[in-house]
Amino acid sequence: MNAPMKYIVLFAPILALAGLSLLHEYRRSTGTVWTVPIAGYDPRDMLRGHYLQYQYEWNLDDAAAACSGPDCALCTDAPERFDPPVRLVPRSDAAEACASFIAVAFDPSNGIMIAGARDRLTRYYVPESEALRLQTLLIQSADAPEFSIGLRVTDSGTAYIEALYVDGTPLEEWLRR
Q: Is the full-model pTM beyond 0.90?
């Protein structure tokens, strides 16, 4: 094997991986941000280890549930506001019918599940040094802060977590107080 071919064989996988990483980061950094309130499955057990576990409190118009099954989308015309009003539409109609949409599966008995999400969009890592402080805040029911998640939503309906907010302030900034 000649010298130029060795370099091509050596660097091609590295360049391909770098290109895929850059493409992934570009997709994550573009799109629309939705800020959605969250609540724990069980307020006494919202913090598990170093992960805050939650469920979304969608501002869903129940009368506008025009879709059921695995090929639905949460559709909004006001994604830039806090707790945007959403409705369910068929995913095939979402690009034309919505200012922004998230691909979801909807089952009336189990609720809304973000497509392809599994635990990735229902758990947020918190620093170990702050876990006890957050746990204490979550248990206090009267003065408990309001939590919300900022989701970066791409034009294709894929959602990524951008930030966790406590009383409207990013978690990192709120913890510095």
A: no
